[in-house]
Amino acid sequence: MSFRLRIGSFLALVGMLAGISARPLPQSTGEGGLIFERTGQVVSGEFLDFYQQADDPLILFGDAISGVENHPVLPGVKVQYFQRARMELYPNEPEGKRVRLAPLGVWLYDETQRGEGVNLPFTPGACRLMGSKGFAVCYEFLKFYEEHNGALYFGEPISGLEKLANGRLVQYFERSRMEWWPENPAGARVVLTNVGQLDFDRVRRGQVNDQIAPTAFRLVVYAFPARPFIAPASQQTINVIVRDQGFHPVSGALVRLSVILPDRQVINLRLPETDDKGLTRATFEVGSFKPGDLVKVEINVDVNNADHVVTSTSFRIWW
User: What does the pLDDT read at residue 54?
Assistant: First the structure.
């Protein structure tokens, strides 16, 4: 089942969580990528392929929280951080098998204080023994594991059920940690720890040299309309994302739009400079054109000491 088909179920799930409002969904950049509005990060290429092959990527991985970076230890390996995962790209592996998930569950289990073991009775049918060490995975954790292709995305269990000092029940897997939140509505009580965010913060605190190796500065620009189809005599918003050659946000970029209307009139707009996420946008009125008419938008971007970049996008008038 595709990412798009499952996105509705994800929104329903998030909407049920107490105190949590549905956040903006990642949108297409129009250039073969996805942009996460909350973080301003773009996912593309083989990382995007891996992300979208999951039925519920927002549940399994969360938002992208970094651009593409060098692996903190392994030369030649690229990584991208998500809230609940770190994807790693091994360029010498066969095509289709180059992206894998880092064993952040192992790291978390080794680096944090262990919880108290919970003696949970083994119930056939509700529990399964898994992995080389034969840990039992039971009840809702087992259901979650099986529903989300746990062998691929979580790996083997590396602990039994444990109770943390704060009273939270957890179980560790090679690439993740499940938490039990009984206060949540039914169907939303298994929550994955933000292991990607924890590892990302750890690397930053340690000032590990994990950035893309310096190369000539180059702009990468994504532009896309808020809606691919709009009604006549309505408003449209164009979003512009500016990145450097390592897909890191570029702030302070000068962005200009030329909106070419169906009657050949041109609306010229100067946008606010890009923010610290590399994002800027403009909203404008579109006249009463007939359904099916195409509106073209040309985007010009300039940054000091960088090449001038031109890109384009479009949208249609519809009923």
Answer: 93
